[in-house]
Amino acid sequence: MSQQVDKKAFNVEDIIIASHTIKDVISPTPLQYNHLLSERYGCHVYLKREDMQSVRSFKIRGAYNRIKKLSEEELKNGIICASAGNHAQGVAYSCHLLKINGKIYMPSTTPKQKVKQVKFWGKDSVEIVLVGDTFDDAYEKALECSLAENRTFIHPFDDFDVIAGQGTVAVELLTDCPEKIDYLFAAIGGGGLVAGCGTYMKHFSPHTQLIGVEPQGAPGMKESILKGEVTSLHQIDPFVDGAAVKTVGSKTFNICKELVNDIVVVPEGKVCTTLLSLYNENAIVVEPTGALSVAALDAYADQIKGKTVVCIVSGGNNDIGRMQEIKERSKLYEGLQHYFIVQFPQRPGALREFLFDVLGPNDDISHFEYTKKNNRETGPALVGIELKDKEDYYPLIERIKAKGFLHREVNNDSTLFQMLV
Fold it and tell me: What does the alpha-carbon distance between residue 169 and residue 155 come to, in Å, rounded to a whole number?
């Protein structure tokens, strides 16, 4: 579909209509002034708390708006969707409310918490199929099933009714914000949230700078805009699962390339640091995608001073079982966690010497494992060291060298890191 047809087919009136269509189903979420972030960045930071939505993400807005508009003919054989988790919950809840049969395809890597939530919201109205490693794998299988069973496919982002539903987030935040909004930060996965909110904001608040945020492991929209066309990524990091999409939507691309002022790409480790900070400092529980908008503030620290900023906290469906990995990724990103293969010399007391003469007063052994089980006393070992301050790294390396311990830094070898850590 051409850009001209897209722009003609979708406009701000669709979002206004959607806000009326979904008003009895969604929970209007608060726009909260955050004192800590405001002081840290020298500006006024508001958080749009979509993590407090009924299904703990904004996805119910677009899903319900789309499904509510389906005809009897389109509903005859039921509906189907593919999702990394949050869209699935929105579709499942909509199926339960409207008494529709639904089939939901999700990656096998989907956090268990999200799968359980889909079952909870869908009750007996939905069937869940786990397949593949990424959203795109599940998407392909769902399309095949849609054709085979003649089910209506509910796209998670590349559909005008879905985009309109997501745009209702902007209707609320613009109504609730007591100040003129200078910057709006929002996560980009397939692009539905930014396309919808951008359309509404540029109409009613044209001076607002719209900043999209993508994870470093899946910068599909940025790559597409740079190349001037929808560009599929060959490989993605699925960690930020709600935004880990290989191919953004064609409709969302055509809207975003006209309305988005900038796209910030955030490393996954930085996302984890922000997620933990939101929890520890603000008692806000978010999923990795939900932390993206706040994680991008550092990149705009100079530009937002004295300004009014809104960050859409897009979702809070985080699996507690992932917290150890989240902490690990955060420490690695912050330069506080380091792994080494250490070859201990063939002399008595070498391990004791390493512990007492190499480790600094604030360094901790977080992991220790001999790599050769039959040579525990003198063989090579995988050693994880946690630092209190990243500045302690170079003194640690100097002490390792001074004591003559042969070593290899695992952090700097991605292949070795993946194998051992």
Answer: 19
